[in-house]
Amino acid sequence: MLGRPEYRKALVFCGLIGVPVALIAFWFLVAIQQLEQLIWTDWPKDLGWEKAPWWWALPLLTPVGLVVGVVAARFPGRGGHVPAGGLHAGGITRKALPGVLIAALVGLPLGAVLGPEGPLIAMGGGLALLFASLVRAPETEASTALLGAAGAAAAVSTLFGNPIVGAVLLIEVAGVGGPQLFAVMLPALLASGVGDLIFTGFVRWTGFETGSLDIGLPKPPPLDGADVLWVPVLAPALAFLVHWAFVGGRFAARFAATRTVRNTTLCALAAAVCITLYAVATGRSPAEAALSGEATLSALAKDPHAWPVGALIAVLAFKGLAYALCLGSLRGGPVFPALFLGGAAGVLLAPLPGLGLVPAMAVGMAASVTAALRLPVSSVILVVLLLGNVDTVALVVLAAVVSFVLVQRLPQGPGVPAIGEQPTDPTTH
């Protein structure tokens, strides 16, 4: 394959396409972050409040549901994939780009409990196909799939700031190798995690070292037996909760598929009510239960003691419910809300005997994001990069494998309506 001239041309073209796609994706993310800051922080302060008032989500998310409902009912591509169905690399054409952009730029900054990775993947793939058509590149089934995957990887890499995450994520999302991929990768991943655990233990016990990739980053407290023993307890519990949020999202997707405008608006309003109840119950900002949770996760990791136990329980409950509703009705990605829920659960459970903050957050985020994505290798890489250390890799791997195996065995709920160029059901108008 590498010796074929057409493949080499496609490789060069994918590299060239990555430049404009990454630039557009960068400004797309900047726009979302600036709008979030403006709407949820600057406007409340300009109006005289220290933080957003408890009712702030209600007038924001209600029109979001209306706009996304209209996009889903009337625009080609329906605004992108329904996030309750997980991440997808295909099914988006260049005609779907306007709907994807409108649904994301309206929904994400105004409080949808979703991340930008889903729209980024759809946007990257659609832009790559658009640029290919502008230069009149030959369109075949193979070239379309290749260009779509390359564009999606270029776009999503701007979000995670790492090309490895983008490449591995797209490999798993695209399902290269079919179901056999997971059959091979999962045992290898588990064995690697166990090997790392044994290696770490023997280095500590014997004092000998055989060389490693450690470059001298600050280390968390050394892992001990209690950290490992908590993994088979905590990982299944968190995976179970996130899985059922997705099942709820699939029911919401079925509900929103009929009378799309009305029912999508109702789901968005219900999510706003959950966010409002969190603010009323805790007296804290509704922004903590709204949005993707990316910024809030960073604040949580830096100052976990600023969150009382009641606030952690409330954000898990109300943000979890809002997450399920948004998964089935609005447009976005499932990654960052799952990471936040796992991180918040880790902070809540960190005082358990022998556990600690860093191991608890590592296990929580790994179990939650794996249950959301069903992509164990991508989840491990992402969580390890977020943690910024290699000492908890074994816990992350074990939690991801346990989570992946569990959610594959649980009832999956109803199917998510497939994306199409135009709605075929007249009741969706």
Provide the residue-averaged pLDDT.
83
Number of DSSP strand runs: 0
Largest sheet: number of strands, sense, barrel closure: none
The radius of gyration is 22 Å
Count of helical stretches: 15
Q: Outline the low-pLDDT stretches.
A: 209-218, 420-429
Give me the strand/helix succession.
Answer: HHHHHHHHHHHHHHH
Which overall shape is indicated by the principal axes computed on the Cα atoms?
A: globular
> In terms of quaternary structure, what is this?
single chain
Which percent range fits the helix content?
Answer: 55-70%
For the terminal residues, how far apart are their CA atoms?
47 Å
Structural category:
mainly alpha
Percent strand equals under 5%
What order do the helices and strands come in, and which of them pair?
Layout: H1 5-46, H2 57-74, H3 97-107, H4 117-134, H5 141-160, H6 163-174, H7 180-206, H8 225-257, H9 260-282, H10 294-302, H11 309-329, H12 335-349, H13 357-373, H14 376-387, H15 393-409
